[in-house]
Give the backbone structure.
Amino acid sequence: MRKLMWFTIGYGISCAVGVYLLRDTRLLMLAAVLGVLSLLGLHFRRHPVGKRVLAVFLGGILGCLAFFWYAQTVLMPAAVKDGEEVSVVIRATGYSWETEYGVAADGEIELSGRRYKVRFYVNEDRRIEPGDLVRMQARLRLTDEGGEQEPTFHRTRGILLLAYPRGEVILEELTPELRDLPARWAERLKGIIEEAFPSDAAPFAKALLLGDKSDLLWSQSRDFSRSGISHIVAVSGLHVSILFAFFSMVTGKRRFWMVLLGIPVLILFGAMAGFTASVTRAVIMQIIFLLALALNREYDPPTALAAAGLAMLLECPLVIAGIGFQLSFASVAGIFLFYEKLSNWLGNWLPGKGKTLRGRLERFFKSSVAVTLSATVLTVPLTAIHFGLVSLVGVVTNLLVLPVVSLTFYGVMAVCAVGCIHMGAASVLARVMAWPIRYVLTVAHTMAKLPLAAVYTISPYIVLWLVFVYGLLGWLLLTKKKRPGAAAGLGALALCVSLMLSFLEPLTCAYRVTVLDVGQGQSILLQSQGSTFLVDCGGDRGEEAADIAADHLLSQGITRLDGLILTHYDRDHAGGVPFLAERIEIERVYLPMTEDTDGCLQGVLDAVPEQIPIDSELTISFGDAQIQIFPAKDAGSGNDSCASVLFQRGKCDTLITGDLSADAEQQLLADYALPDLELLIVGHHGSKYSTCVELLDATAPDAAVISVGADNGYGHPAREVLERLEAAGCAIFRTDLHGTIIYRG
């Protein structure tokens, strides 16, 4: 009956409820309700379904109690420390890296008798290594601003606190302990890979073997996402299975040696990969397989999956909100649920019988397609929610690269092994292994460039298509007369209709103002009757902002911009232009007459041949709308050296002020007659020095949008700005909270 599986499902649901819905004593109330339902359901305990329901209820009860205990004993004490300045001793658990806020590293501290994971920042030139002690007066902050139980990137990894230095920092190098060695060995292997492999192949080799994606180009990451093979650079079950297959071959599948050596090797590999959610799940499941082998017991994959999930939730309930955890468990669950059905269905066309070449190719193709499709059944909704896209070419791309990925994994292992003995020989081998890496990168890039490689959930029609597809899937599972071919045809037809509607919708809309979620930056689309202008294109990383803008345009079938307007040349407003021009044709660019402080102007000039200076007020008519561009009054390099943009269509008026300060806003009011606004793009990402009361009183905006990055280091949006907007009666929208925001009419 797989009691553990049903118990874990209930436990996980309660943890998810604790993370996303309920807080504090309401969890106890939920546990009480489940307890009552369990007592009422004891009457059906002899029925198979009744047993499963009781197991789910029992797991739910214990999950509620465990999460409540975790919140009371771990989360709330951490919240009490928020804002405190304390003297701390931090033991580093990993290597440091450079950030815009200084050198960062992860470590452990002891506060009030409890050990916490912490991310700390120091202003030190020396690199921090695992096992080092850091003594400092530190200001502690929670890893999120939204409350002590909100799931963030850090929290799903157990990191609850951030530590910032307040005074002298003392570093002590200690002899590394046993637990520090895997991280040090992993760093050694990264050094061998960087030295041995050519520069274009080394980042992928590090990501493939150890999950270190820090050196991958943003464009490469987007290629992996669009082509549906992101999992190959996230150490997961695929990599553990490849490693285990190699280990099984080396031991000759001798049970004793597989168990004796396999478990330590798996634990070591997981530790070197940082015990991410996906690799932890895979390692636990593989260890359970080895234990079943040692005890001569039957191995049940769903039970092993449940055991892995339960172990991870017991260690940190917040892990259930992690993207890696969700994708890893969803993909494996999908294989368990759908692989056999898909394999049997494909077997009607590809029997794969016999030992001939054709039979072997048919079996390989059938198995690969069935595994890929079954793994994606449950992961597609998650990728749509978390990343806003669904790859349509993932099956084909996986077929093309997975055999090569396995070979490459072994090759990178061999390079590292040889490199520990002789770097010259390792370099020769690495040059050979660079070719399959280049093949994978080329295939990913080629597939990602296809016009319909991926569809984007920013379109409501694509969301409806997904709902329709999963409705068809439910119908297939419930109906007795299976017609998968007909369902696939209906799904394809629905996709065509959804794409057509996505492409036509901007043409039928009177106007659209789209504030793209580019992090700490700004990029705004203005559309009317088939014409499209973009105001600014920049963010934390210019290439990322460009990709976000390009993906949004391509999701509507738009491959050309009528014009690009820049308010100024700061990187968070103009840094993405050269990258955008590589994917989208830009007819012309409008350039303010201000200084180029961040060195972005030359890239813009090289990317867009036709340039129009903003040296006086300009009016651009397109469709039945118009754009007024107000030149910068200050030709210097400060925030006041910004052009402003007024978009008007009928009774819809939208004002974009770039990074203008309050003084410059008042000058703008004095020089030009601004109308009442329906939409205000808040200046300077919500800085307290912008969006003055006079501007709000004069324009009376109905709604205000703040383009701002989550957890930015500038304190944007400022509390003063939010208060001024509320006092003016504005509806407030923020890209860090609401994602991309569309205002249409």
